[in-house]
Amino acid sequence: MIDAAGSPIRDHARDAQTVDFMVELxxxxxxxxxxxxxxxxxxxxxxxxxxxxxxxxxQAAVMMLNAARRQVDGISVLAxxxxxxxGPSAKERFLILADAGSIAPVMRNEHCDEVRRLLEALxxxxxxxxxxxxxxxxxxxxxxxxxxxGIFDYLLSMNAGPDGLPxxxxxIEQVAARVDWKSAQALSAWNDARALEFNLAAQLAEIRSxxxxxxxxxxxxxxxIVMFDPEPDDSGMIAVRHWVHRALGPWxxxxxxxxxxxxxxxxxxxxxxxxxxEACWETPExxxxxxxxxxxxxxxxxVAWFQTRRGTVQAKTLGLRYPVVVxxxxxxxxxxxxxxxxxxxxxxMNGGRLRCHWHVxxxxxxxxxxxxxxLASDRSLTSVVLAGPATTGPCLDALxxxxxxxxxxxxxxxxxSAPGDVVRQVIQALVTGSSVHELPHKVQRIRxxxxxxxxxxxxxxxxxxxxxxxxxxxxxxxxxxxxxxxVGGTA
Length: 491
Known about the structure:
The protein is α/β, with parallel strands linked by helices. It contains 21 helices and 12 strands. The chain folds into 3 domains: about 10-100; about 110-215; about 225-470, no CATH class.
């Protein structure tokens, strides 16, 4: 299908009708036939599918249709497989329903040769990072030889995305964002010419802006993100979601399986996640950070002192082994406060001295209003220190105010009756002197100091109770229940 500007588009209503037709085919309904059908299509498309007998007929149909849509001749190939298994009338009906989908425009050979020469002249690039940045559904990535030229040639066989932009043009944008100025200009000019030719200038401009933000962001450190997402059915169960960003580089977290647990079982669920991440880490010597994305109701949870293999001699406390920070689930899911969040975070990361806005607990609403006004009027205040735990009440209210104003860094003591002067001295030492980038590691060292104390001294040590909210707006994850896609990444 083609839009008014002559650009190919994806018709999702037509896709739904096509899937409805496919699930009624005997060769897809029957598990044994379905396995043979999927294998035949995979061989024809040059693509390996998972075990189809573990999927429903509808899941298999969606998987096969998407795979066919991604290749220029994929729909025709799928139609021939349907002909083979179901006969000519089924093939004709399928082609009527499937239409042409998002057919990538065909590039002329001389244009392809021109960009191949540009790619050939480039210094070596990290192909793994380039492929991850493409964010395609091909996982794991196919084996492609020939460096960037080989990837470009491979992508020429793939269909356009929902916006009509061929993956090969997206790839050239990713390369242009990572090379010297002169090479980038030549690659961008080539892309601009193709976009004009295919009536895709607006789509290319949008993706170029996104790619440049992504490439200009600082490389993201390896980390595990664990999200506690309470189920909406009042069952008391919590969906434990997690993502692993495996290596230093552009932000590309990989989702893992979702677990479901009661609040009392969260520590065991987290232990399983961390042990799995440790077992398959790409570069074990690289320091890892653990980030907990928590709802307001759980922000004061003692997650830094969760243990793996607890109850054994191999037990390890997370906050002693890794920097552990918390983040806000509600803010990650609220799009309209993301711009001020990014603005104040950028001021924090690019500024010099860390400026804290200290919260004073008086129980007065007027005090919170004044504190809020001071924060809103001074964009150089990039962090806050709460006067008490982030539980229900004035301290949590102050934290919500700070997050709405874009503050991404906060510190507090989780105790209801902490020695205020001692806590203030400890936090003042934390936020004074060294770079803000060192703060998660400084908090880890304070936790280590607490662990070296004995008896009641350990329990009274501020390091045993300190929480660091370190909420980077560039390190977003896609929650199944909806929010914005991630962009970029900072360390």
